[in-house]
Design brief:
30% of the residues lie in helices and 27% in strands. It has 9 helices and 18 strands. Strands 1, 2, 3, 6, 7, 8, 15, 16 and 17 form a 9-stranded mixed β-sheet that branches. Strands 9, 10, 11, 12, 13 and 14 form a 6-stranded antiparallel β-sheet that branches. A hairpin with a 2-residue loop joins strand 10 and strand 11. It is elongated. 44% of the residues are buried.
């Protein structure tokens, strides 16, 4: 079996929910040490002690013989359920027994990067300097990447985050801006048998919701209500309710417009009902859009063509660590490793796709970078 598949399967059986990535980090470190590849762990976990973070981001450095520096990145955490993982191999497919996620998101990306590093460190293929970054807490808001000390890293010319689905050759050239947070509406408690004596916060919340665009707002904007929490008993008028919102758009001003609309609608409700409120929805993950004529995109397209792969540049509506690289001025693509049905117990991936992705990364790393 190809070594990149061995790496993937070895990591896939390790439970690594967000902030509990220590065992995956230990596996990567053992492999890097075996081949003499320099690495260090940062102090990201100290920023998330309240969440019980076990380890920091893991950074490996492989000096190159060609000009420039390329970063490769994947995250070490997975969504749940990820306990007692049983791997099932059926021909070219790898999946689980249906009781847990597979963790191809994003251990397949880690396996590709790790195998590429080992191949370069063990061989004589010319390559730029490579910085490999394995992050924590990506699935809960890009937490590891957000506290990554970019000043400690060498100057990076471009980056590839290997954390997307689709056919190999697919890359995401944009990601939305987003915001999330809780709106708290406070009314007046009272006995349910005397509704005139109270003000039900949920009634105000329901009116708020009906005045907002929820779901598909337009072709580049979506919103969602993920959690509603309130009330103590059926015979008590609900005094307060918490409504958790999320909004994402390819235009930052549309995200801000949604936040402002929530505040305006709340003010209107307050003028007709005895309520108070707090709007804690705030701008969050920054979006990005890459220049279609950039070297990053042309290099990726050229290497895909060289490997016989169909190139597909997509606009994304999800976030990844690529958002953070681009925010920090490093042109970064989020590219596919072929995983399917992610974030579910039906997650699966083809061995051949992992291998093809590894070969594509090796091709990308065989090219010198032109001056930026």
């Amino acid at each position: 079996m190809d070594k990149v598949i061995d790496h993937f399967v070895s990591m896939a059986v390790i439970s690594s929910p967000s902030y509990k990535e220590a065992q995956v980090s230990a596996y990567i470190q053992a492999q890097l040490a075996k081949y003499g590849i320099e690495f260090y762990q940062d102090n990201a976990h100290l920023e998330y002690q309240d969440e019980g973070a076990q380890c920091g981001n893991l950074i490996a450095l492989l000096p190159g013989t060609l000009s420039g520096t390329v970063a490769l990145s994947a995250h070490m955490d997975t969504v749940t359920p990820c306990e007692n993982i049983t791997i099932v191999e059926e021909g070219d497919w790898i999946k689980t027994d249906g009781k847990s996620v597979l963790g191809g998101d994003d251990k397949a990306g880690i396996a590709v990067i790790l195998d590429a590093l080992i191949a370069l460190a063990s061989g004589s293929v010319p390559h730029p300097t490579v910085v490999a970054i394995f992050t924590i807490g990506e699935e809960v808001g890009l937490k590891g990447a957000k506290v990554l000390d970019f000043a400690r890293l060498p100057s990076i010319d471009l980056a590839y985050v290997i954390d997307a689905g689709g056919e190999i050759g697919t890359a995401y050239i944009s990601a939305p801006y987003s915001a999330k947070g809780v709106v708290t509406i406070t009314g007046q408690a009272g006995h349910a048998s005397e509704p005139e004596m109270g003000c039900n916060a949920m009634v105000a919340g329901a009116q708020l919701i009906t005045q907002l665009p929820i779901g598909r707002v337009d072709e580049e904007t979506t919103s969602n209500i993920g959690i509603i929490h309130g009330g103590n008993a059926t015979n008590i008028i609900m005094e307060s309710v918490d409504i958790t919102f999320e909004v994402r758009s390819r235009l930052q001003e549309k995200v801000q417009a949604f936040i402002d609309n929530v505040s305006q609608q709340l003010a209107t409700l307050q003028s007709s009902m005895p309520i108070s409120y707090e709007n804690r929805i705030a701008q969050g993950t920054p979006g990005f859009r890459l220049d279609p004529s950039s070297e990053l995109l042309s290099t990726f397209a050229s290497c895909c063509t060289q490997q016989g792969l169909e190139v597909q540049f997509n606009d994304g509506m999800g976030g990844s660590d690529a958002n953070i690289f681009n925010k920090n001025g490093i042109p970064c693509l989020d590219i596919s490793v072929g995983m399917k049905h992610i974030h579910s117990v039906n997650e699966c991936i083809k061995k051949s796709d992992i291998i093809t992705c590894r070969d594509l990364i090796m091709a990308l790393l065989s090219r010198p970078l032109r001056p930026q």
